[in-house]
């Protein structure tokens, strides 16, 4: 029963991490999606840069424009983060086996993170599709159908494209999450281990205030750096996913590598990395918030970690 209770707590801590991530990161994500959807077309760039895109959103739609699709993100990412962090923690414990030295091990981290990432891609695909379609539409109708809410978007997508339509971009999401989260957790586990080793040495204070500040600081740095590593490694796959999910052409290929090749021919390497600025600007604070929320929720819930 105790093991089941600890597992449930891991899922609750993961949900807290997801909520924190959306609150901090959604406005940056809106800018990223608009750049990816509108700056990779054959008609040329709509926005000069991330600042221009943000200014246009605020001018035309106000602050609410930056949080378009956020309701589906809150629901989707809370469930996704709960499953992701919970499954990662459980898989890591199972694979830890003979590795009881407290050090991170690639042969434990990579399969745990990749499997967890692949699992949550099934949830992320439909929630990100509705989020992206909400984000790319402005005040005027841009792609033929006006969506009043994420639910309206999901219903209309199902009506016009069927179940297959709501899972557009699934393969790109699967690759992004499996590869990206292996990179994320390798970076997180190793950076956290090295920072703790350095700051736990006798030269530093052991007061409760220092310990709390140290834990928060390590959470911020390890989470932020890991988030940037994730997106640096997988942004081209994310560009392909956004194009697949938001392009009005129902016959567009769903093969992410074929779509990336098309984007490269249209917009070069900069097209494959469209939205890099706001993505990295979002990655540090959003993932720092997620990791701090995850670690502190675990402490409050009494979960013991190395």
From TrEMBL:
GO CC annotations on file: mitochondrial inner membrane
GO biological process: mitochondrial L-ornithine transmembrane transport
InterPro entries membership: MCP_dom_sf, MCP_transmembrane, Mitochondrial_Carrier
Lipid bilayer topology: Multi-pass membrane protein
Keyword field: Membrane, Mitochondrion, Mitochondrion inner membrane, Repeat, Transmembrane, Transmembrane helix, Transport
Solcar repeat residue numbers: 5-94, 104-194, 214-300
GO molecular function list: L-ornithine transmembrane transporter activity
Subcellular locations according to the entry: Mitochondrion inner membrane
Keyword Hydrolase: no
Family membership noted in the UniProt record: Belongs to the mitochondrial carrier (TC 2.A.29) family.
Protein name: Mitochondrial arginine transporter BAC1
The species this protein was found in: Setaria italica
């Amino acid at each position: 029963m105790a093991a089941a209770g600890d597992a449930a707590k891991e899922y609750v801590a993961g949900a807290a991490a997801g909520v924190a991530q959306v609150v901090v990161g959604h406005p940056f994500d809106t800018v990223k999606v608009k750049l990816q959807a509108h700056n990779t077309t054959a008609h040329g760039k709509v926005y000069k840069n991330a600042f221009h895109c943000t200014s246009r959103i605020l001018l035309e739609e106000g602050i609410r424009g930056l949080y378009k699709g956020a309701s589906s993100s809150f629901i989707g990412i809370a469930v996704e983060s709960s499953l992701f962090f919970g499954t990662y923690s459980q898989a890591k414990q199972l694979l830890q086996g003979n590795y009881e030295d407290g050090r991170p091990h690639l042969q434990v981290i990579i399969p745990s993170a990749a499997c967890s990432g692949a699992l949550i891609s099934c949830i992320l695909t439909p929630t990100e599709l509705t989020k992206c379609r909400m984000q790319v539409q402005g005040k005027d109708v841009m792609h033929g159908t006006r969506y009043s809410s994420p639910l309206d978007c999901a219903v209309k997508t199902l009506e016009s494209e069927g179940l297959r339509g709501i899972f557009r971009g699934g393969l790109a999401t699967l690759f992004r999450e499996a590869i990206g989260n292996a990179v994320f957790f390798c970076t997180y586990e190793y950076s956290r281990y090295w920072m703790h080793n350095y700051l736990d040495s006798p030269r530093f204070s052991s007061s409760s205030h220092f310990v709390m500040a140290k834990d928060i600081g390590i959470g911020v740095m390890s989470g932020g750096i890991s988030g940037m590593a994730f997106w640096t490694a997988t942004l081209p796959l994310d560009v392909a996913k956004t194009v697949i999910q938001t392009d009005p052409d129902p016959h567009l290929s769903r093969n992410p590598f074929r779509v990336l090749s098309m984007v490269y021919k249209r917009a070069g390497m900069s097209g494959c990395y469209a939205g890099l600025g706001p993505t990295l600007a979002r990655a540090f604070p959003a993932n720092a918030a997620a990791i701090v929320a995850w670690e502190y929720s675990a402490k409050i819930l009494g979960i013991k970690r190395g």
